[in-house]
Amino acid sequence: MGKIYLFDVTNRDGVQTAKLGLSKLEKTLINIYLNEMGVYQSEFGFPTTRHERLYLQANLELAKKGVLKPIRLSGWVRATVGDVEAAFRRVPELKHINVSMSTSNQMLRGKFGGKSTLKDIIKSLTDAVDAAKSAGAESIGVNAEDASRTDINSLIEFGLAGRAHGADRIRYCDTLGYDNPFTIYEAVKALAKGTGMPVELHCHGDLGMAVANSLAGAKGAIDGGQDAYINTTVNGIGERAGNADLVAVILAITKSKDFAGKYQLSHPVDLSKSYKIAKFASYAFKVPIPINQPGVGANAFAHASGIHADGVLKDKGTYELYDFTELGRGEPEQVETGREICTGQYSGISGFRHVMDQIIDGFAAEGHSNGDMSLSFRNDKEAGEILELVRYANVEAQKPLVEEELLFIAKYPGIAKKLLTLRPLDGDD
Ligand SMILES: [Zn+2]
Fold first, then answer.
1. Distance 61 CA to ligand 1 centre (A)
2. How remote is the CA of residue 203 from the centroid of ligand 1, in Å?
3. 220: which of 120, 331, 363, 367 is 20 to 30 A away, CA to CA?
């Protein structure tokens, strides 16, 4: 029986959301948290985009060092030979890629003015898959954009063509959030059967069904004899009404009626990292977590009405499906109400050392070990070099860095330097 793989796209679909974005350091922290959680794959960016290059290279370096392991890091490009070649030229260590093409008549009319037929699209796709193979890609997904408005036989033809050239999976994109659980189940089951390929579910929330559709699609893929890959984003951040929320998807797979126990995740997931990743993404994107967000919202475990409060006090199972501790909640949060020294782009050495000392004391007080982290600077020169990077990180983030960002810079100054390097005018390719 097929399994469900978690394939997060926060660092690709999430960051292309209007009005929102992440610094390269924030994107890196998201990858680290996804890896800690046990997420199988992160679509970590756009390898054809010049300002992503050093970030993508730096994250692949972290993978080599074992920091981003076992998570798979994959890029997203359009399914053209030009894009694929540019991707592997700019990010030569890239191993996993998804190549994307629109497949619906609406998109063919709207985007290509009716000049491209499905045959042309498929030719571009197979040429792109060939190019990715010869560039050394180890896994290739072929994305059917607007799949939910594409006739199923065309989708199968698209997938089979990709497969014949060595593609590993097909991504079924419900680009406009048009599907419902009933339609996506049938379409994806037919697609899995018709192509013999694992199917990725890429669902949007325009009709409020991104998580439900992801589950129904996964069931369709598995019932069709294949593995399913669910595309998620942290806090559901994504274009327009957003994508399927990572934590809600995990909860739905592992807790929902007649699904839990039957359809299973490919790898164990550490749900207790949920609260941390959700809080960080909220801070980094500057988007509050909705009060009623599943699992991580402020009201997810709050009870006021007499009958509910009485019931849950007698037996929590009366009004709660799962426990807050499972999501890593329940620890008191400290908020500074007095003097506060922050890091910023104009910070000096004594303020910086003070901030770092506080972080170190905090970790010690909580009884954390910091592994091989060297948490004390040998001298002011060493501290000054880290501070310089912290200043640059603040220029990019335009807000105080969180503790784990500061620790990351102190631990991997060489990687941090790459993440913070933007060279728009050096004319390289
Ligand atoms: Zn999308």
1. 27
2. 7
3. 120
Q: What rounded mean pLDDT belongs to the chain?
A: 92
Distance 353 CA to ligand 1 centre (A): 42
Same structural domain, 79 and 219: yes
pLDDT tier for residue 371 given thresholds of 50, 70 and 90: very low
Give the domain range for residue 174.
4-284
53 in the same domain as 181:
yes
Residue 290 resides in a domain: no
CA of 76 to the centre of ligand 1 (A): 11
Alpha carbon of 73 to ligand 1 centroid (Å):
17
Query: Does the pLDDT value for residue 308 go beyond 70?
Result: yes
Please state the rounded mean pLDDT for residues 322-348.
Answer: 89
Do 220 and 153 share a domain, yes or no?
yes
Per the structure, how many domains does the chain have? 3
CA of 68 to the centre of ligand 1 (A): 24
Lowest mean pLDDT among 105-114, 224-233, 303-312, 347-356: 105-114
Residue 427 domain-assigned? no
Same domain, 326 and 249: no
Q: Is residue 267 part of a domain?
A: yes
- Same domain for 260 and 325? no
Please name which of 410, 286, 393 lies closest in space to residue 359, comparing C-alpha atoms. Answer: 410
pLDDT attached to residue 318: 82
Residue 47, pLDDT above cutoff 70: yes
Ligand 1 centroid, distance to 258 Cα (angstroms) = 28
How far apart are alpha carbons 429 and 426 in whole angstroms? Answer: 9
At 378-409, the pLDDT tens digits run: 677 888 899 999 999 999 999 999 999 999 99
d(CA 258, CA 50): 46
> 169 CA distance to ligand 1 centroid (A)?
17
Closest CA to 9 of 370, 302, 281, 266: 281
Does residue 205 belong to any structural domain of this protein? Answer: yes
Which CATH number belongs to the domain containing residue 96 in this structure? Answer: 3.20.20.70
Task: Answer yes or no: is pLDDT of 422 > 90.
Answer: no
pLDDT in tens, 150-171: 999 999 999 999 999 999 999 9
CA of 67 to the centre of ligand 1 (A): 28
Rounded distance from Cα 236 to ligand 1 centre (Å): 11
Pick from 230, 245, 261: nearest CA to 300: 245
Same domain flag for 157 and 241 = yes
